[in-house]
Every structure is written in structure tokens, then in C-alpha cells.
């Protein structure tokens, strides 16, 4: 069954990145032809993708009331390898795996934001439980702003995924209150970061499978950050220690 993209940015990103086929685009008859719409029309014409002008009410129904900004598209579904397949590919390519495991994200915006940060900080995949948490919905893909085209979301039991990760010798770091201060943890090189669910945090079962628990020092009486923000902070520190940034000396 085809996937559905809703909004100018996700449709444009899908056309631009060319990772999957766009089958059909529906465009609001009243949409002003701004730069993004112009690029969508140009790329669609170049790829032979049909564009159909429709009334906004049609798009509202198709998007089931979600934000669509006058553009909806039918596209190929996203595909992803298994955790083991991805790790094997990365090692064969001589790359140090950088994986993010997110347990039971209930809010689509958090998964979308994590995907966007994962793309920006060069993570290779986001792994989420098969039966818990948000799916890679049209909302997730809109919030991810193109990151869903590049970062595979692997739906797999986290215990199973961690088994393959640990067998491959990849260090596993969990994020939770009371852990080692983030700046004191060694995060460079191959790494898997485990984030807990919103509200409940890292479960004891997952914490027991981590080599180290880290926490983010906070001011203002705060105990924790939103999970997508915390994930971005951890990814930044990991890449700082990898020497990604000009003023970075690594960890």
C-alpha cells in the first residue's frame, strides 16, 4: 500500500532526494505558486509524476484534517533493513555505527524531531519497538522535514536489537536521571544511544542492558528535557567528541 505525504516540504524533499517514487501529487487549485510549489511542479514534470489540481476540501478529506499546506502525494512506502543487516553493512563500509534506540514514543512530533536531529548529526538509524510508540505517519514525516527519506526507522524489539548491537561490540549508552554527567562520558566512535519513553523514562530492563547511563546537567530546577531535545543534546555531544566541529577537541 502506498505511503502518503502531506505538506509542501515533505513532498518537495521526497522529490528532491529521490529515494522513493512519487506516484501522484494533488495540489490545491487555490495554492499560490511560491518557490516550493514551483519546484514541486518542475521536479514532478521532470520525473513524469502526474499533478492533479483539486479543491482544498478534497485535500482536507484525504489528509483526514491534518495539516497539508495545499499539497498531498502518494509515494512508495519507506523501507528499512534489520538492525543486524545495517550493522553488517556499516562495518563492511568501514563506518562506525551510530544508532539511536527510542522506547515507546507516544507523540508523533517527538519521533519526527528525533529523525531530523538524527539526519543533522549523522546517525545511521532510529530503532523503535515493533508494538509500542508512534509509527512513521504523515505527521512524523512532515515534522522530520525530509529526514525520513534518509534515516531508516527500524521497527524491531529493542531487546533483540540490543542483542545484535552488543554482539557487534558497539557500546550502549542509556540516558536517564542520576547517570554520569554527559560531558564526563566517552561517546566517540561506534555507539548506540538508548532513550526512554516520554514521562516514564528509561525502563529498568533497558537500563540493565546499557554499558553506561548518562544524564544531562540542567539548571533552573529542571529534572529532565523533552525526549527529542535530550536526544539532540546527546547526539551533539557525541559528534563533538568525534571532532566534527571546528572548535572541538574531542572527548
Describe this protein's structure.
This protein is α/β, with parallel strands linked by helices. It folds into two domains: 73 residues, 60s Ribosomal Protein L30, Chain: A (2-Layer Sandwich), CATH 3.30.1330; 159 residues, SPOUT methyltransferase, trefoil knot domain (Alpha/beta knot), CATH 3.40.1280.10. The chain is built from ten helices and ten strands. Helix 5 packs parallel to helix 6.
Q: Can you tag this structure with a few keywords?
A:
single chain; 251 residues; alpha/beta; 60s Ribosomal Protein L30, Chain: A; Alpha/beta knot; 6-stranded parallel sheet; 4-stranded mixed sheet; 10 strands
Could you provide a short overview of the structure?
The protein has 251 residues and is α/β, with parallel strands linked by helices. It has 10 helices and 10 strands. The protein folds into 2 domains: 73 residues, 60s Ribosomal Protein L30, Chain: A, CATH 3.30.1330.30; 159 residues, SPOUT methyltransferase, trefoil knot domain (Alpha/beta knot), CATH 3.40.1280.
Strand composition percent? 15-25%
Counting DSSP E segments of at least 2 residues, the number of strands comes to 10
The structural class is alpha/beta
Q: Total domains, how many?
A: 2
Instruction: Give the % helix.
Output: 25-40%
Which SSEs are present, and which pair or pack?
Elements: E1 3-6, H1 8-17, E2 22-28, H2 35-47, E3 51-54, H3 56-62, E4 71-75, H4 83-92, E5 98-102, H5 108-120, E6 125-128, H6 138-144, H7 147-150, E7 153-155, H8 158-167, E8 172-181, E9 191-195, H9 204-208, E10 212-215, H10 227-241
Parallel strand pairs: 2-3, 5-6, 5-9, 6-7, 8-9, 8-10
Antiparallel strand pairs: 1-4, 2-4
Helix pairs in contact: 1-2, 5-6, 5-10
Amino acid at each position: 500500500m502506498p505511503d502518503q505525504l502531506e505538506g509542501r516540504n515533505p513532498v518537495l524533499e521526497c522529490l528532491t532526494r529521490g529515494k522513493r517514487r512519487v506516484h501522484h501529487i494533488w495540489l490545491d487549485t487555490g495554492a499560490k505558486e511560491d518557490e516550493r510549489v514551483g519546484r514541486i511542479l518542475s521536479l514532478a514534470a521532470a520525473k513524469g509524476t502526474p499533478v492533479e489540481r483539486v479543491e482544498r476540501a478534497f485535500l482536507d478529506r484525504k489528509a483526514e484534517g491534518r495539516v497539508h499546506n495545499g499539497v498531498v502525494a502518494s509515494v512508495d512506502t519507506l523501507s528499512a533493513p534489520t538492525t543486524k543487516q545495517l550493522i553488517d553493512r556499516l562495518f563492511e563500509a568501514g563506518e562506525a555505527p551510530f544508532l539511536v534506540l527510542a522506547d515507546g514514543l507516544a507523540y508523533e512530533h517527538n519521533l519526527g524531531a528525533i529523525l531530523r536531529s538524527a539526519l543533522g548529526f549523522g546517525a545511521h538509524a532510529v530503532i523503535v519497538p515493533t508494538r509500542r510508540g508512534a509509527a512513521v505517519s504523515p505527521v512524523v514525516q512532515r515534522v522530520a522535514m525530509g529526514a525520513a527519506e534518509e534515516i531508516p526507522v527500524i521497527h524491531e524489539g529493542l531487546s533483540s536489537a540490543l542483542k545484535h548491537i552488543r554482539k557487534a561490540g558497539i557500546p550502549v549508552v542509556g540516558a536517564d536521571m542520576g547517570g554520569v554527567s554527559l560531558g564526563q562520558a566517552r561517546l566517540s566512535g561506534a555507539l548506540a544511544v538508548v532513550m526512554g519513553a516520554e514521562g516514564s523514562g528509561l525502563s529498568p530492563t533497558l537500563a540493565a542492558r546499557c554499558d553506561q547511563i548518562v544524564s544531562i546537567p540542567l539548571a533552573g530546577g529542571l529534572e529532565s528535557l523533552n525526549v527529542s531535545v535530550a536526544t539532540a543534546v546527546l547526539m551533539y555531544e557525541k559528534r563533538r567528541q568525534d571532532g566534527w566541529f571546528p572548535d572541538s577537541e574531542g572527548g
